[in-house]
Amino acid sequence: MEADISRILIPRETIARRVRELAGEIASTYGDEASGLLLVPILSGSLIFTADLMRELPFVMRIAVLSVSSYRGASTQGGTPNIVQDLKLDIRGRHVLVVDDILDTGNTLRMVMGKLAERGPASLRMCVLLRKKDKAPSDLKADFVGFDIDDVFVVGYGLDYNDQYRNWPEIAVLKPELYQ
């Protein structure tokens, strides 16, 4: 795997520190409403991020996973997102925090946030590990952002290319010749 990596964009120690900081920001934002918060990770990319984030949150919470597909096979360009596995829990009247790996074009998160908003949550917020600062749509605001990055193709820490590299422990730039 290491031979496929062009460079490390965000080392594991930096990720761990920022995840702890994000947990503090989330706890501070929700305050007394934090207990019973429902985390909704978008699988599969946010799996590792969500697991680390949950361990840092200092309150009781629930989790309900949502599986969305927009990339097909070895593509680096997202298609139309569709829900593969919907929530098994009623979110009406609950405080909901959607957790995703990356805010890029915004297609997936816009669709997910819209569908969840229709279900009547008490509040609906978004937390992303990465946001491509020059590509993310200005009308789609993440409430919590781990890192702003340039428009480069990244893998690791849950992010993949063709369902590979999710287990790389850092955010890394994949060698372009592997995906172009």
Describe the structure.
Helix content is 22%, strand content 31%. By secondary structure, the chain is of the alpha/beta class. The chain has one domain (12-151): Rossmann fold. The strands form 2 sheets. Strands 2, 3, 4, 5, 6, 7 and 8 form a 7-stranded mixed sheet that branches. Helix 2 (47-56) links the parallel strand 2 (37-43) and strand 3. Helix 1 crosses helix 2.
Descriptive tags:
180 residues, alpha/beta, Rossmann fold, 7-stranded mixed β-sheet, 3-stranded antiparallel β-sheet, 10 strands
Compact summary:
The protein is of the alpha/beta class. It has helices spanning 12-30, 47-56, 107-117, and strands spanning 5-10, 37-43, 61-63, 66-69, 82-85, 95-103, 123-132, 144-149, 154-155, 171-174.
List the topology elements:
Blueprint lengths: L4 E6 L1 H19 L6 E7 L3 H10 L4 E3 L2 E4 L12 E4 L9 E9 L3 H11 L5 E10 L11 E6 L4 E2 L15 E4 L6
Parallel strand pairs: 2-3, 2-4, 2-6, 6-7, 7-8
Antiparallel strand pairs: 1-10, 4-5, 9-10
Helix pairs in contact: 1-2
Counted beta strands: 10
CATH topology type: Rossmann fold
Question: Architecture in CATH?
Answer: 3-Layer(aba) Sandwich
Helical segment count: 3
Structural class call reads alpha/beta
Rg over C-alpha atoms, rounded to the nearest angstrom: 16 Å
Mean pLDDT across the residues is: 91
Helix percentage range: 10-25%
The CATH class turns out to be Alpha Beta
Along the chain, the helix and strand elements come as EHEHEEEEHEEEE
Main beta-sheet annotation:
7 strands, mixed
Shape: globular
The N- to C-terminal Cα distance equals 17 Å
Note poorly predicted spans: none
Task: Compute the number of structural domains.
Answer: 1
How much of the sequence is in beta strands? 25-35%
